[in-house]
Amino acid sequence: LYIINLLIAILISKLLYKIIKYKGPIKEGVYHWNNKNNDYKNYFKRSFLLRYIKWKIQKSPFPWLIKFAFNFIGNCLIGKNTVIEDSFIAKELLKVGNNVYLGKILLTTHLWDKNLTFKSIIINDNVIVSDNSCISPGTEIKSNVLIIPLSITSKYDKLEANSIYSNAPLKKILKK
Predict the structure, then answer these.
(1) Secondary structure string (H, E, C) spanning 58-111
(2) What are phi and psi of 142, to 5 degrees?
(3) Which of 88, 114, 120, 141 shows the greatest Cβ crowding within 10 Å of its Cβ?
(4) 3-state secondary structure of 4
(5) Are 70 and 51 in contact (CB under 8 A)?
(6) 10-19, 27-36, 90-99: which range is least confident on average?
């Protein structure tokens, strides 16, 4: 019964998500909290819906359903053989390739500083992001990259293929 409840919640979330996207498509950008336009409001509607479903799945006995749910809802693309540990994972605009390991990390497509920055994250094939790392909005990680634990990317970082990165702010320490 529990898994049926989760599947029904995922289905309802997909329907509501499509309705919200129809009213206002997803737009990347930088939004100021004083200028509450429709894109800004729709971001928070989608965010609430996806946060609820993510919480419901990750706190269930079936946390492995998160890949299926996000791919089914259509807010993220998560490749085959990708392992996602119990982490704070982005709710939208996340593209993850095949054979990727995402440890217990912070992976976010939105960032609050003076404004709300909302940008996609692209992680290509064969990437390992180790525990206690943070991936910021706008980051693009090429194939065959290892990010050592306790590392932090800055907004809009582009990480080269076949490399190992470490530190905060992120620095390349070795090219394979």
Answers:
(1) HCCCCCCHHHHHHHHHCCEEECCCCEECCCECCCCCEEECCCCEECCCEECCEE
(2) -75, 180
(3) 141
(4) helix
(5) no
(6) 27-36
